[in-house]
Design a protein that fits this description.
heterodimer, A: 464 residues, B: eight-stranded parallel beta sheet, eight-stranded parallel beta sheet, 4 helices, 18 strands
Chain lengths: 464, 276
Amino acid sequence: MNIGEIDRSKYDRSDKAQERYRAGFGVTEDVVREISRQKGEPAWMLNKRLGAYALFSKTPIPTWGPDLSGLHLDEITYFVRPDAAEAKSWEEVPAEIRRTFDRLGIPEAEKNALGGVGAQYDSDIVYHNIKEEWERQGVVFENMDTAVQKYPELVMRYFMTRCVPINDHKFAMLHAAVWSGGTFIYVPSGVKVTLPLQAYFRMNAERGGQFEHTLIIADKNSEVSYIEGCSAPRYMTSALHAGCVEIFVGEGAIVRYSSIENWSLNTYNLNTKRAIVEKNATIEWINGNMGSGTTMLYPASILVGEGARSESLGIAVAGPGQHQDTGSKVVHVSPRTSSVIRAKSISRGGGVASYRGLVRVGRRADNTSSSVVCDALILDGESQSHTYPFIKAENSDSDILHEARTGRIGDDELFYVMSRGFSPEAALKLIVGGFVEEVSKKLPLEYAVEFNRLIELQMEGAVG
Amino acid sequence: MSHIGTSIFNNEPRIRALYAALEHAPVSIRIPPGARDYIIDIEKVIPRGEAGVNISIDAGSGSSARIMVRPDSLPHSCSIDFTLAEGAEILYEAEHLVCAPALLLVTAQVHANAKYVVQERVTAHAFFYSRYKVALSGEGALFTDEMRYSGASAAVLDMERAVHHRAGQTLSHMNARGVARDEAKVLWRGKVRVEKQAKKSSAFQRHDAILAGAGAHIDAAPYLEIFTHDVSCKHSASVTRIPPENLFYLASRGVPFADAHRMLTEGFLSLSHHAS
């Protein structure tokens, strides 16, 4: 496919969906109470929201990282409910909302490649379904709001407690106060979900905020792969996405979490993702960040069990007007834990790509190893690439390695490809395609194709 | 200092106390343009008995000099400001034995085609703060830095190396190695900034450390900030143990464990032969 054929409008176009409720601008205690009231939540969840709101009100916006001065928290709507009840069949979803997801290819992907799908429109989940095969084996794949009602004990135990506590940082506090929708997954002991589960988050409202919460609990020796896709139409005003992902990987379990974040350029994507990994368990993070004006996203793994492993593979593409501040964090708490972080970035057209990461090896983490490799490509003289790694070593029986390199595509590489008959633009695409291949080949085929198209779209006009 | 929400240990109060001692009479050293092979022993040009000293060293165009700092020759608080005119060459060889809290601030302005070479060795048993700020302001300016450190007992080493590439075709090469023993705490910060106009520059930054004490602790933060594309920049950092297979190799040849450990550490801390 030629890059000229790629149609960005399927992401950027807004739809005129009916709204059931829209809160006023800004976040107040009344807004927090109203969200909880409309959802019919138990008192403990309301108290958690109010506690988080109190902390949020007195915590300043962080001063490190990208410039957040353009984010006006009082000009954002924190709760917009579409006029649609949650459906188990796409036919039941209102036509104007269904059209959005059809355009994004979600129902088609569900038929071909997925074990279950959730679709969120602004603050509410509008579609949720899981294939019977997994349901029979006890796999729970639910809207997070429903899970609060149906599985209160599990949610009370795991929701913003020891993984991402409500006082973690300013935007985790905001998230805890106004969260709505998202996904709850529970995989019972020994069950291996062989087809990925997926959730797609669409933020349609202008000056909106989306605060979905994803909670994944993989019990002992289970396996699950989960994919998140995100997009929003393009407006002239700012929007905020402050989601939260909490993953509990039980002993011997394997969880692969993939996300392709393609928010529109007016969005501030300030997301928190963290996993607690038990004995001999594995977490794999695959993150593609192509959208948003400003992104701050550092998926973290806390390796609490002996022999726990973390793999993180990330790619960030920063085009004109974008600042992608992404990276990964790993805390080695126990012995024989290991981590690998591979981070790649491409900056072009004045975009800024930053890697910001942390590797911490605690005093008890004997015989641990950690390897971090960052590769950055800068495609023109206007763009920037920064690397801010941080190593904190407290154990004398461990090995921590970090390396990074930044540079341009060599003239000799371009010349070599062009001498085989490729145009400069096609040669650049080919080389960039090779650069990102490590990420795309880890995704299911349909998503790899979509991912490669997004990269091509980003590369449009990069030559000349 | 905050980094994705993680604080690193704060030495500010101790640094402030040492800064206060810097307000003493300055010492100025001028190396005439074209003068070659100057040798300056810092101990012989600074006043004795001062708590702090400011030294400025101006190397004239085309000059070359070797500046030596012997262990114990500097006061506890010291700043040295280098200016290297076009084509000047300075080899700065310093050895610091830190038994009481000490502060060392170094700045260098390196103009076109000048060459600033640092070889520094620090052995610390107490608090040591050092900060190097090197500006490569002229085309073709070069900075190489071979640094070795060793912290023992309750030493705290807070070290920062910042290189600013401001002109085209500039080159920096930093290679730091260190060992933290006993309860020593080390904070190593490296920062390379390559400005938009510094096309065809090359920057290399490396920090390797060995944690050799049960209570030792190393924080390493090697940063790269690149504002243009026509450059080649690399950095690496590692914190490791002495490889057990190397210890085993020496032990199998009859070398006692403690001696094997010492030999391997000394080897790790030796300066590269091609450093200068």
